[in-house]
Design goal:
about 15% strand; 10 strands; 8-stranded parallel sheet; TIM Barrel; two-stranded antiparallel sheet; about 40% helix; single chain; alpha/beta
Length: about 280
């Protein structure tokens, strides 16, 4: 049984999963909502909406990691995310905040501004100082699998066995963090839907989500509005919320612990109904 994780007075008892991670992209160019919450006022308004919808955690990102995207300078990322984190913490003191970054300096400033968790798409590989920030703060970390980097990840990604290779990578990175002094119960794994994967790779991961439980860490998936859903339903990103709910239901049945999504309300309502139905004979 996974040990519960306490964050800012909240207890994430994984037996009660899934928990909802609301996305706030403070970027002009994210694939789904780029520019929608770029101003401090709009980001703060979205934070309020997500909390009202039932978000258990807010994930703030200032660096687009969509396929082929070029990273902005560190100073620009800081300029985008730190004021938003400060404002959310001031207005909503109890909501756990995650910062979506692979840069140690951004992570450090985010923690100093009120963030609680690091969501690192590189699993600590892009900035060697990230482990030092985590050791100093003893904060939880989400480690994600990605083949290549955002600029190259969708250029012909190839695997011999996509599920096995992702599991091996996540196990190696998790134990790297543990060996460096990070508590196992503070590590969350993410197979990285859409990060260096083809349409078929993404489906294979989702079909085999239960196998990731073998690693004995909480599992997060970020599937919301992603391009593989567009290939199925033939709709643009902002019209893929219904498709996102479909994957969330599947992930719930596979006992995934955290769902990183744009629309918490739709996913929460669907799973609330499903839970009631499953309780009945």
């Amino acid at each position: 049984m996974l040990k519960a994780l306490k964050i800012r007075g909240r207890t994430f008892n994984w037996e009660e999963a899934p928990f909802f991670v609301g996305i706030i992209n403070v970027t002009p160019d994210s694939f789904s909502d780029g520019g929608d919450f770029f101003s401090l006022e709009s980001a703060l308004k979205r934070a309020y909406e997500l909390i009202e919808e039932g978000a258990d955690l807010l994930d703030i990102g200032g660096l687009s990691t969509r396929p082929y995207s070029e990273p902005v300078p560190e100073e620009e990322e800081v300029k985008r995310v730190i004021p938003v984190i400060k404002a959310i913490r001031e207005n909503f003191p109890d909501i756990p905040i995650s910062v979506d970054t692979y840069r140690a300096k951004v992570a450090e400033l985010a923690f100093n501004s009120g963030a609680d968790i690091i969501n690192d798409i590189s699993a600590g590989r892009f900035d060697s100082q990230m482990i030092e920030v985590l050791k100093d703060t003893q904060a939880p970390v989400v480690i994600m699998h990605m083949q290549g980097n955002p600029q190259t990840m969708q250029i012909n990604p190839v695997y011999q066995d996509v599920v096995r290779e992702i599991k091996e990578f996540l196990k190696e990175r998790a134990y790297f963090f543990i060996e460096k002094g990070i508590s196992p119960e503070k590590i969350i794994i993410d197979p990285g839907i859409g990060f260096g994967k083809t349409f078929e790779h993404n489906l294979e991961i989702l079909r085999n989500l239960e196998s990731f439980h073998e690693l004995n860490f909480p599992i997060l998936i970020g599937h919301s509005r992603k391009s593989f859903l567009g290939e199925i339903v033939k709709k643009p990103p902002k019209e893929r919320d219904g498709a996102t709910v479909g994957v969330s239901i599947w992930a719930f049945l596979k006992k995934v612990h955290l769902l990183r999504i744009h629309r918490v309300d739709l996913n929460r309502d669907a799973l609330q109904v499903l839970k009631v139905l499953l309780q009945r004979n």
